[in-house]
Amino acid sequence: MKHLRRLGDVDSMTETQVSPRQLWLFAALTVVMIVVLCFSPGFGILSLDDRLGKDQALLDPWLGYRAGEAWNVLDTLGPDGRDDLRTYYWVDFAFAVCYGVLLWVTIHHLAIKSPWRERTGMRTALCSLAALAAVCDIIENILVLVALGDFPAPNTLGAAGVFGLLKFLLVIFAVIVVLCGLLSLWAGRHPTETTQCDTVPVKQTFVALRAGSAFLLVLLTISIVVEIFLHELHKSISDFYYSPTRAVFVGGLCAIGVCLIINRAESDLENAMLDGAGLMAFVVAFVPVPRTNPDVWGKLTDGEVLDATGNNLSALFATAATATVFGFVSTELLRGKREKPLPPFAKVLLGALLTLLVGAGILGAITGSQFFVDNAHGFAAGVLFAFIMAVVMVNAAADKRSESSKASPNLVLVAVMIASVLGWLPWGSYFDYDDWFFWLEASLLTCFAIFWVIQTQRLNGTMNGVRSGAARSSTSSDATESEPSPSVSA
Questions:
Q1: What is the structure's pLDDT at 484?
Q2: Which long-range contacts (CB under 8 A, 24 or more apart) does 221-227 make?
């Protein structure tokens, strides 16, 4: 108990208070609990899974579950199986405490040995990930036990699934923090010499990445044009999902989303908007536009769309949140104290982003809301186009502030984008032209593609200038070193 009370005060802990012996103790307890929960006769996971058969699985190992799915599992177990399941969840309380304390102690032990040890506030927040995971696990257990007592009319299974998903996400985040801490510790013990890398492969990769983004849009355009000539013009680009273009539509949008996310922009604002546009591209690809015609090509039932959307979006948002935490934590742990600390608004934005990702994942994967399925595509597409227009506007504003603003193509592209919106909206509203939205989307994407190509050429030229300048500087320095000094020649 004395050691547990010390663990509650993270800021007062010192390196000697978290010994390797304590780490091994909590690790051994966690392993023992895993063995008990898996192999115990009657209430163990293996015994309960045998009763469920191949078509169902025990609730606790799931990455979240819906109320209907959980009810089916409880009904299949029968009275005796539900009694054993109740025993399982009582034992699981001890397991939650064991792995929560283990992760807490491990994160703290690694943090105080890293260059990040002085940042007590963030260290406390990272250690709290483990505590929150254990708390979510305990709440899930309580809700499932309540549902077992109320069966066959449980009311808490849906909420239990939500806390089950949060538990898994927080455990994943905590494990990522541990891996980053191990990497930081290993890097501190094995310093490597920094060598100047060849800029040619780096530049070629950069140009190929940006050019590949443009060619992915060309791929989607060609597929749509072929579909128009062979069959018909749909009311929007998203409607081509219900056509032979589907594979190119989904794969192309996912690839474009990856390219937008991994591209590093010149400003933090532009970079954030590109990341947001890339994330929304995945949502547009994964959530089909609602069908207006039941006889469309490759039609899916409402249940199939709901299941696919829940699966895909839960994977998307969990991956996005995990990648965000991994990028932030790994950068902080490996660099130690940042030269330019994040401003308060950036920290609030990061927290809001993670909350949004987790909340949207819960909404799409757990609740199975039909409202979400019906409106997620349109919302994501609107945000995607808003972001790409904003990126062009930010660059146009930067061009206007610079000295070379006399002939800025970005200003022209912004004018064309605004004219497209103001032109096609009344055309479709007042003249009843069914395909106006398709041409509006095509106009905005064409302008963004032109902007992307122009920016790629400009950045390529800048890199060539930097490289040639560095080469000239290196040549001049070599010449200076080889030239004898006046005192020597004298």
A1: 45
A2: 223/248, 223/249, 223/252
